## 1
Amino acid sequence: MFSTDELCSLRWDPVSQQVEIIDQTLLPHALRWCHLDSLAAYCHAISTMQVRGAPLIGITAAFGLAHALSEDASSENLARASASLLATRPTAVNLRWALDQVGAAVLHLESAERASAALAKAQSLRAEDIANCERIGINGFQLLRSLKKDSCLNIMTHCNAGWLATVQWGTALAPIYKAHASGIAVHVWVSETRPRNQGTNLTAWELQRAGVPCTIVTDNSCGQLMREGRVDCVIVGSDRTAANGDVCNKVGTYLKALAARASRIPFYVALPESTIDWSCASGEQIPIEERDESEVLSITGLDAAGDFREVNLAGAHSRALNPAFDVTPATLVGALITEHGNFEASEQGLQRLRTATGAC
Ligand code: MRU
């Protein structure tokens, strides 16, 4: 399925020697690739969500730092560019993780070697992310297979944790792609994910391209669908998971975890190890991004003439609060699906992961 660079969210253009990204703010109505040709363009792409999703934010920042070093490889500029990229969005820990990886790879090098070393590191982080996400797909597929019924497997997801949020495969959607490719009948309930509609705009688009049956549902209808027994499991991604197993993901995830528990439905979280913040003891310490209220008060779409148009949903002078993420306590998470295997969402479970990776 992912044999070419067509189905990927970020690629290297050897002609321009620049990164190309899919501008996700235009999906599902337009598939437009755009080049990132300056540090400012990288920061803009992350903060305006042309690229989004924790792993992809990290990979993009890694290439952004390499770009900055290609213009000025001094230690001052290394620190300046890292700080600019880190300031784009606060919650997804992959951003800090990727900048630390590139920083460590170049810090002790002569200036003249830094830009090429940083680019090589960014390229290897991209390749690792693709391999890790496929492994997440394989490990998550084991869980789905254990749920398999005679009829179709109905899986609910929230936001977009597909290949548009990583480079290829995705996290939460990777097991679904593996199950579909193996011939298991699956159907996906795609939660719209207000206010930026990553479910409607990105997840449904991805699944339709892959031929995976899916239905867009309002965020608020998901609890009722679970109560009616129309959902066999819920799989979501993560932006930062604490060392005790608390999971931070797109706002609305916590409500789905509560509804899943009330209806005794498995609730799984798929994530690469790079999304685990070992320095964070619990979810209470995770910074929650608050975005502009305009994202709640207005909405963008295609009008009848086929033009992009933003329209106001709320009355004049209305105010809104827009937390972009929430925290699901580890106790509500049935399993953490990673590239290293499936683990209990708990301190002990994550210690087992560390042991499995030889990190301790
Ligand atoms: O605000 P976004 O679109 O960056 O939020 C993305 C999510 O919450 C994803 O579920 C998460 O980053 C995991 S992506 C594999």
Note: The CA atoms of residues 133 and 151 lie 27 Å apart.
## 2
Amino acid sequence: MCGIFAYTGNKNASKILIDGLKALEYRGYDSSGIFVHGVGNIKSTGGIENLKEKIGSNFQGTTGISHLRWATHGQPTKNNAHPHTDCTEKVFIVHNGIIENYKEIKEKLISLGHKFISETDSEVISHLIEDNLKTEKDFENAVSKSLSVLNGTFGIIASYVNEPNKIIVARMGAPVVLGIGDGENFVASDPSPIIRHTKNIVYLHDGDIAIVTPDSYDIYTLDNNIINRDIEVIDWEVEQIQKDGHEHFMLKEIINCPNTVNDTLRGRLMTEEGLAKLGGLEIVADKLRDINRIIIVGCGSAYYAGLIGEYMLEEYAEIQVEVEIGSEFRYRKPIIDKNTVVLAISQSGETADTLEAIREAKRKGALTLGIVNTVGSTIARETDAGIYNHAGPEIGVASTKAFISQITALSLITIFLGRQRQMSLTMGKRIGEELLELPKKIDSILNNKEEIRKLAEKYSKYKNLLYIGRKYNYPIAFEGALKLKEVSYVHAEGYGAGEMKHGPLAMIDENFPTVAISLDDSVYKKVISNMEEIKARKGKVLAIATEGDSGIKSLADDVMYIPKTLEMLSPILSIIPLQLFAYYFALKNDCNVDKPRNLAKSVTVE
Ligand code: AGP
């Protein structure tokens, strides 16, 4: 999820663009760049400050485009930063989104003599426009012809040296808005960099292409029919926009989970063949065919995601799996042989304990893999192969959408390795089809967030809560408890439901409620009997149950329902109400949910 911003008017474009990119920094911050007509193109790795330092005072022009990168294809390097240009350095583009068919287009353009300097998918756009400028009558037509061959998502701004006071903008699946000023106009991924200049915003729709000059903006469909889009006057503050109107990044990121699942799956499921296409693992596919053991390492939520991966990989890929917390793995003496893979899971890709665990594994000659969200991060660079989550930047310290994406990625790896082994086409197809259904099912849970808020407020006075679960939802008991601990600072403990009678049951009374994940699955009856043990000690039970299970109401004090799915995928649904429960519980206790005390988003020290 990158940030794009452009300006055309009569003021100093570079100052306006740099200030505007700051407001978009929550979208991505690993590299940035700017092109201003009549002056040139400057790119830099790192955040805005680095770019600002490079731009001298005489970087003056009145039309420019700029970009803040959240890498998806290619490391965060200067060459991979945007704006990208063509062989003649006359066409400049910035892009937010993913071009899925970029490899084929790039090969064709290279065969036509084009020279590429970056590893990105986006650079094909500037060379396509260059190519079409040779045949099309004008810049507009060269741009729309180029866009017509792209598959994937894009928010694009293009600029052409020969037409200085004009920028062309297009949207397909990635947000783009216009800011309508007086003698000046703006284009951005969202209104946050614009509203300090004008409140008149035009939201482009998928398939829209706009030609913007200082005094005009005309919107067409990609097949050249002119259309009208209303101006909406918005009175939001910048912060509100960064949070999509939600009060906190944590809530925004929970609400974003359906998109996150889609983004993690995009281009990676071949449902008809029951296969998972994971480019980042292709290079070690043969080695992976011979492995017989996987050690998953991670910390915090990433560790709990790993525990779910253990159940999936053992049951559906028939591979022996162990899961380790990074800080213990690096000081133990793990036995690693040549058929053992060590798989690191990390949102930030910078967690010191997980990184050192990977380095320890490499020293012992293990093949190391990564499931990482931050492109170009240290763990991504130091592992031999892996897959990116594509979940976009996660700002809230409590991991929510990244956790969902980690489980989704693990299910893709389960299909990938399973289909190399005994998993049937039918089973691979079934898991794939059910994965594609999950975004809708998450949406239906999010539609009940008001009920979940009421329940969270009802339980918000308790200082101790127990979370119990079994099998695939055993790790969810721990993750649910971790969410509540992190953002509301109360004592919440995750436990295997079957372990209750071996100790924790002693804690139970009417002041120590239990959250029980009791879904209609292979261990349902076992969890029910554990809930009865709690009720027998006057403990209150808040159950997470499968829609249609009315019987559980007679046992539980309160119930949060979720739709039915495959047991192996049920954690992707059962954690959603627990994330919302923790969020609203913390709000009721006036906690700072986005920046909880004593915690950091990325723990880069031991
Ligand atoms: C989870 O909500 C926490 N922020 C924390 O436990 C986190 O999962 C852990 O620090 C691992 O971070 P990583 O995924 O960036 O490696």
Note: The pocket of 2-deoxy-2-amino glucitol-6-phosphate is lined by residues 299-302, 346-348, 351, 354, 397-399, 486, 602-603 (CB under 6 Å).
